[in-house]
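Sanity check record (used in CI):
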Amino acid sequence: MTEAGGPAGPIGAAHARYAPGTPCWVSLMAHGLTATQEFYGGLFGWEFQPGPQQLGPYVHALLDGREVAGIGKLAPDRHLPVAWTPYFASDDVDSTAETVRLCGGTIGVGPLEAADAGRLAIGSDPSGAVFGVWQAGAHVGTEVTGVPGTPVWYELTTYETASVRKFYATVFGYAEEAAPATDFDHVTLRVDGRPVAGVHGVGAALARDLGPHWTTYFEVADVDAALTLVVGLGGRVLGPAHDSAYGRVAAVVDPEGAHFSLLQDAP
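Expected output for VOC domain-containing protein:
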């Protein structure tokens, strides 16, 4: 669970441009924009400023003045799941969207301009997992990673990796690294040799209420302290924090039901 980084900045790793296929942004569409800002501001220390309004009210989350994520407001008549959506970098979003369609995926939004910030599309893979595509303009994407409060990893949970790995490799040009254990259905997706995301097949254990879905992991300094904050701010903890090879991890849900995970890097 490591993300490709850029040159070192004052904090974390700063990003000037993302290579195609690299997760470059993450966005949440929620019903209560103000309450959602209060939750994530309290949890991650984010501040907020207005962003492009093409899809309705939208704000960029800032950490020490640098953009790390986006939060938008769902229209009252849009009965869509509240979920964090990762965006993958593209040099040509129109071409990428067409490849998505040709490979069995769907494009539900766009491609469209987000003012001078860039060009975007939102689609789903053949199993139904939703993701975005971002062609950078003035807005490159997440401006800093590698510090608490920033996205650190992206994991697709699906029925089996065989059903979607070819899709993502074709659309975004990923190289793949399968897990060495034959009984563990996991593939790491790589860009220029660097791990950028994972695909995990869980078969019948996949939660029916979620279906195939992408999960964003946010870095925190102390997972256990963060879990206390989550509950105090009105969210829920889905299970006890546990130690992994990548650090201490816990899955949580915000007050509107958006799933995400917290990761405390291994020392």
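Residues 33-44 form the longest helix (12 residues). If this sentence no longer matches the regenerated tokens, the check is flagged for review.
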